[in-house]
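RETRY 2/3 - previous attempt timed out on the joint model. Re-submitting the same 572-residue input unchanged.
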Amino acid sequence: MDKINELLEILTLDSSEDIFDFFNCIGEKKNLTKHNIEHFKQLLEMIGYPLTIVCEREYVDKIYRDTYYEYFASKHLIYEKNCKRLAFFIGEISAEKFYDYNLENTRFLQQQFVGISIIKPVKVGKIGKTLLDPLKIKIDSSYIRTTPFDFILLGHSLKIDAFPYSSQDSETMTCAETTVWNILEYYGTRYPEYRTILPSQLLSELEKISYERILPSRGLDYYTISELLKTFGFAPRLYSANANNEDFQHIFHYYVESGIPLAVGVEGKRNKDDIKHSIVCIGHGKKRKPLKGIELKSIGNYKYIDSADLYDEYVIMDDNQLPYRLQSFHRMTQYDEPKVVVFTVPLYKRIFLEAKDASIIVKQILENDALGFAGMIPKINESLDDNNPIVLRLYLTTSRKYKSFRINNEKNIKAKNFYARLRLPRFIWVAEISTFFSYENEKIYGEIIIDATSSRMSCLDSLIMIRYLSNIGYRMPDEDIKMILGRICHEVKDCTYPYEMYKNNLIESGG
Amino acid sequence: MKRFDVQDMDVSEEMSFLYIPTSQYDNVISELNEALNNKMRKNDIQEAKSIEFAAKFVTTV
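RETRY 2/3 succeeded.
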């Protein structure tokens, strides 16, 4: 009977001083290094004290078990094949509460539930798959992309919204493979078109494209990372800083604003040695840069800024750091002289028009004498100058979510009906037009919608809709683009302005 | 049978700003397309550099 009692521990930690005792209690003394303890201490500090941890020993984590049979089982030194799963809850919760199955109690546990972390029986990369709810931990104010994860713990069904995190063991998975795994774990959980994968499946695909052995891992180049993503059903696009110059951060931001996790290659120095590291970017900070430091651009006689210029901080999942770290674009790693040099975007296979092309199309339309926004500006009831320039915001979204947002936020039923009946392609690029003051209040004055399933050589043929104030020019799939020109000059009384800025791609987190 | 429908939006018949005479439609469209074609062709040259760089950037730590 004693053996069975060891399989589950419910412990409350009152401060970081309890951590060493905690590891003793759960029988995790072997392979415990100072780095492991420090890393775990910082992780728990994100949750805050007191906190209750339910520890399931002898836990079969399919990710580690797969790696165990693929690699660790064949080594001379003995490795255990089971892990420990830790479930974190805010506050002190007694054991009796976990065995009370009335609805109110389950709701209470759900409210207090922060997430889980797998503790692997290895020295390097001890913290395995970790899912923490960003709304319940101490992180910087930011907008993040997450997806729902479900758990069964002691008979209770619990769920959180999170983004996958894991540290690397540096033998089977370095930062590169961990980056790919994190992205696939997110997509496979969220969308039926994709699947979650085991490390051995990732390595098996790598075998086919690698010119030398893949274990122990020596890292991956970004061409290979992109090729791997392609193998698992994506249509990735690569962008490097040297090829995109001043547009690089803008393009980066457009995809982040679209809620697409990016695999990001960063370089830096550690003790004067060159370091190349891979991370995942899943959101951006809330804090905006002051307008004074931003160079205003011109479209015709009007000054504007891109919303990408307002943000400098991005949320990253870096296996060398804690999850949901907010870091400057120019300091996106803990190493010296850091620089983002390349990123790959795991696009859905039917998205043919990419961010750079969408941006070009939108800006060309806005500049046009006939179709541009110059006519709308005098009708905006705000004073426009260097302190209140026009703001352009570009993002990709699904038409389903876009229409749902518009239908919910339009005040007039006829306007709701219009959006409900508007036929849009599955994916759209949307360029919102606002002023700096209205942007801060999350309101806009107009939009341009571009068909993301069109190719770059379609040029103007990718245009689906323009809305400036109460004027809406649109076309149905079987209509010529001239219908937009014909419709845009008529005011629609049921559409008021300014109206709601779209807010569906990222969730607001942090204090 | 009952059929439920919502009326179409109330669209003003007057021409407001953004009026383009129908005779100008082709000019507006071709002017925009020409400008866009030129810019898209410039992008193609840049893209090859991204792929070349990515193949050499091996992330390890």
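Helices of chain B lie at 25-56. Closing ticket.
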